[in-house]
Amino acid sequence: MFDKTRPEMKYVRMLGTLSPNTRRVAEVLRIHGPRTRAELTVLTGLSRPTVANGVTELGAAGLVEEELKTAVGPAGGRPAAVVRLARAAGLAIGLDIGRRHVRVAIADLGHQVIDDSAVRLSFDADEEADSVLDQAVELVDRALTGIGSTRDDVAAVGLGLPAPMTKSGRIGSPPLLPAWAAMIAADELAIRLGRPVRVENDANLGALGEFVWGAGQGCSGLVYVKVATGIGGGIVLDGRLYRGTIGTAGELGHVTLDARGPVCRCGNRGCLELSAGGRAMVEHARRSHPQLRDFAELVTMAADGDRGCRRLLADAGHQLGVALGGLVNLLNPDRIVLGGELGAATGLLLEPLRRGLADTAMPAAADAVKVVPAHLGEHAAALGAIALALGVQAAALPAGAGWAEAGPP
Prior knowledge:
Blueprint: H1 10-15, H2 20-32, E1 35-36, H3 37-44, H4 48-60, E2 64-68, E3 81-85, E4 91-97, E5 101-108, E6 113-120, H5 129-146, E7 154-161, H6 185-193, E8 197-201, H7 202-213, E9 222-227, E10 231-237, E11 240-242, H8 273-276, H9 278-285, H10 295-303, H11 307-331, E12 335-340, H12 346-360, H13 363-368, E13 370-373, H14 380-390
Parallel strand pairs: 4-7, 7-8, 9-12, 12-13
Antiparallel strand pairs: 1-3, 2-3, 4-5, 5-6, 9-10, 10-11
């Protein structure tokens, strides 16, 4: 059985030949990303000479590289050198499995994203877990081959699934992903890949990705909302991903809006997802647009000006705002990040969402929270999965770190 709490294989074998203090420097670089020597001194708790010796030893082993920061502070002066783990140290993989897609992102242990690719599934992932995992492995191998690497270069894998996940790695609500309920997905994927795997709810990973690299940079608390076939939510409080007692916090789509409403697939009545989720919107839109294929096409039609589709998104935005008002009252976050499959139509939900929020949140809390579109789009969960694989905590990187300014590869 793999130890899923830390990277293994090639990376650990290489570190095994080095001194304990040098390994400490390397682990801080893996978790916190590129750092100056002064920052490494603080983060490791080691003396400056000891950090310098560690960097030298890692450099001699080909595990780190040093480069000058491109930005200089307002006071001017010479830019500091930044130390980062080199590609030779290994790779981390982020996998995002949705109901109709699989996306893989690859980064080196220095937090540099190297590749990002996706495939559409010809079947529903809810029903064919083994087939989805097989396709995920094929996509990983193809991506590794494309960058001239192999599985032996991979230190760890992060996996996102569209369902609440308990801390034991099981589906928290089996009716939401029935074919996966009997398995521990991380273990199944680890057996196929021969690498350690950590698993998390996809919306939690979206929150982590946006907080570390995207629209959540610089804030202390955010709620990430993923609008896709269903509705997911991820919460960051005081710079940490909040999972709840058993790991299922943030299930925004299953907040009850109408206790006497229709029965949801989760078993409850009147869930938000039944009125504002992509699946529900598509079913409604097909009454006037019977040829409509999926939620992505509905979003495209709305962005192109279709009045019916635009109204459906606006109504969904208001319902989202109503549900989020209670969450804002309870948690008082400073940012709500709106993501998922919305793309260019995100703006159609923003104003209705703000109005719904004003209807249910206390005025002071509603005024304090900013509602913004996600920066990472469809890449958010896969990048959050990379952070999960690397062991990155939500508060590890400062605003401006990562590749958000350049955009996805």
